[in-house]
Amino acid sequence: MTFNDLEFKPHPVSKGGVQAKTMIGNYELSVVNLNSHGPLYEIAIFDGKEGPFVKLPGIHSSTDDDTDDVIHYLSPEKISGIMLKLSCIAGPVSV
Quick check: bond before 92 cis, omega within 30? Predict the structure, then answer.
């Protein structure tokens, strides 16, 4: 799965923005653009569907409590890389 596989819908709170959500293992990845046309996006990772934010080593620059849960200013290529890392962290998906 890559950025190109994401299905964007109108953002539920920010008029003119878009959001895509996808489950990768037990993590939910949220990708948001508040301008609806790129080129940069922000992501957040949740523990389970709509669970609390999580910060993961290798994805977040710091897992300190005082750092932002959201990663800003990401290109589609960087998001695809994060999706690959997240799938490696999440492990095999049970069927």
Answer: no
List all residues 6 or more positions away from 24 whose beta carbon is below 8 Å from its beta carbon.
Answer: 1, 83, 86, 87, 90
Query: What are the φ and ψ backbone dihedral angles of 32, each rounded to 5 degrees?
Result: -130, 140
| Nearest to 88, CA basis, from 8, 25, 10, 45 | 25
d(CA 85, CA 12): 27
Pairing of β 71-74 and β 18-24? unpaired
Tell me if 9 sits within 8 A of 18, measured CB to CB: yes
The one-letter amino acid code at 66 reads: D
Quick: pLDDT tens for 19-74: 999 999 999 999 999 886 678 999 999 999 888 999 998 898 877 777 789 999 99
DSSP tag of 57: B
